[in-house]
Amino acid sequence: MWTDDGITNSGVVVIDATVNVSYETECAGSPVGTATFTNQIVIDNKGSKFLAGGDSGSLLFENVNKAPRAIRLLYAGSSSYAIANPIDEMLAAYNAEMVGIDPSNVGGGDDGSTTDGGTGNGN
Length: 123
What we know:
Largest sheet: 7 strands, antiparallel
Order of helices and strands: EEEEEEHE
Distance between the termini: 8 Å
Radius of gyration: 14 Å
Shape: globular
Strand content: 35-45%
Number of strands: 7
Number of helices: 1
């Protein structure tokens, strides 16, 4: 669901999913392989109302109004579902950290609550 503040909201469909994602060697190219990802969440995207083309890399937040906390990173999807991986695992893999926040306030979000993503999708 699109809101006036540019935040889209949707519900979590599956927690701790294992997903297979096809990939190409170039944008809009032919699929050349499949990557398997574990510990992912699947988010409702009926009618592409949460995720649209170009939204990969968008952060997902929880508790946006009271204490926003980055929890996931969008990277794949369809017109039915969006897939996101844990931001804390991505940060650890690249030895990186969120700037300007308390590091103890990063990650989590696997309680099945509504996920808010700043994807900018106005569909």
